[in-house]
Amino acid sequence: MQKKVLQLTNKEDIAYLDFNPNASQTILLVHGNMSSGVHYKPLFEHLSANYRVLSPDLRGFGDSTYHQPIDSLEDFADDLADFLTLNHIEKVVFVGWSTGGGIGLKFAAKYPEKVSHLVLIESTSHKGYPIFEKDETGTPILTKVYTQKEAMAQDPIQVAPAVNALESNNVEFMEMVWKAAIYNVKVPDEKDLELYISETMKQRNLIDVDWALMTLNMSDKPNDVVPGDGSIHDVKVPVLNIWGRLDFVVPEIMYNENQTALPHAKQHIFDGGSHSPITDDPDKLSEIILDFIR
Predict the structure, then answer these.
(1) In terms of residue numbers, what domain contains 283?
(2) Gap between the Cα atoms of 5 and 69, Å rounded
């Protein structure tokens, strides 16, 4: 897979994969935290048979640059809007996985003219993804959410170990995390796993993204960190909301929060699915997405 590179108007270079570029309709695949556009590899062949498929590395991930730190998921949405404009693409099917789902919600609210359909795969809630303070045993204190970025960065369970692994290139630790929390249903074959972890290790913005997730709040009410901006009501496009019951990353309450806020959304639950239906069952996932956008 050979990545292309496009410089945005903000001077960030976005690396991306581009399949079937002459197709009349485009699917934009937006990855999540601790990953890159390459993590959608199992879907490329299925989706690109009749569609152009673009799978970029977000700013600070993969082979894209990170000159200007992001402050919010909206910054990623703005990058993607510019990316599409520079590629002369008017409208896309936006597919967002995990953090990419949160970006998709912001994108669909801010740039509705650029989206025909929105597909949420194991998406973070539109109310944000909280990181709770921990007690002396490392157990989350469910009544105390970090309210300062600096304190969150020192979290001993969810943040600091991952940051340290990225900075020290601790591939073994990161592989252990992915097998335990994300590939808990089906581990990719050795060659693909090595590829995905190598892409994960390129991330340079983990703390910024974790904080952006905590400060995402498109609802009408505060989320213990920031007030809501009500922008979830601006999401008018058809939505497909996908979740797996064995997802150890995004709990069912977040899936339900998005469904409640978007009552028109079509639902699909994988009873035996993990946080990565992309690798659990790419044939079925592709079929569900294609049926929805047809």
Answers:
(1) 4-293
(2) 19
Tell me which residue of 124, 89, 87 sits closest to 106, measured CA to CA: 124
Cα–Cα dist 165/176, whole Å: 11
pLDDT of 1 > 90? The answer is no
User: Mean pLDDT across the chain, nearest whole number?
Assistant: 98
Q: Tokens in use for 117?
A: 């359909």
Question: At 201, is the pLDDT very low, low, confident or very high (cuts 50, 70, 90)?
Answer: very high
For the chain, the domain total comes to 1
SS3 154: coil
- d(CA 22, CA 37) in angstroms, rounded, equals 20
Average pLDDT, integer, range 86-109: 98
Q: What is the CATH number of the domain that holds 139?
A: 3.40.50.1820
The 8 Å CB, 24+ separation contacts for 70-75 are 70/205, 70/208, 70/209, 70/212, 71/208, 71/212, 72/212, 72/215, 72/216, 73/99, 73/102, 73/103, 73/106, 73/212, 73/213, 73/216, 74/106, 74/110, 75/212
Q: What are phi and psi of 233, to 5 degrees?
A: -70, -15
For 13-51, what is each residue's pLDDT tens digit?
A: 999 999 999 999 999 999 999 999 999 999 999 999 999
